[in-house]
Design the sequence.
């Protein structure tokens, strides 16, 4: 593990960068937050996308979806009024075989679970709740 002086020396040796970037990384180093860099960059990216009117939609499916399917999902969300006030919609496809089938759509604070595993979990809860009554 590097000490503070070694981290600052490393930051100074990174080459051409703006004073703001240098000060940012030095501040992170001084506060022992350099390990949080990726989370900070991700949060900044989200803020900039919101400012520019861009929304990212994450579609998780059991298998990778093709471009036609992703475009259909994008069209459904924009024309159906689920996503309003945005100039651009970025659809990101992630795969998770554990959902068995269907998909989970996430954007902003919303999650639409249309997966087989989600439906099975709801059925199981319904059955266990009705049995315990």
Sequence:
């Amino acid at each position: 593990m590097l000490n503070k002086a070694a981290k600052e020396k490393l930051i100074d040796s990174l080459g051409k960068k703006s004073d703001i970037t240098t000060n940012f990384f030095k501040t992170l180093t001084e506060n022992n937050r350099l390990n949080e860099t990726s989370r900070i960059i991700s949060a900044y990216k989200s803020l900039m996308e919101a400012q520019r009117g861009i929304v990212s939609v994450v579609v998780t499916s059991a298998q990778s979806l093709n471009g036609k399917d992703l475009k259909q999902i994008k069209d459904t969300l924009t024309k159906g009024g689920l996503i309003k006030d945005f100039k651009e919609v970025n659809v990101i496809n992630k795969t998770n075989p554990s959902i068995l089938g269907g998909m989970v759509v996430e954007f902003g604070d919303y999650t639409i679970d249309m997966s087989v595993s989600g439906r099975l979990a709801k059925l199981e809860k319904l059955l266990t709740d009705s049995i315990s009554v």
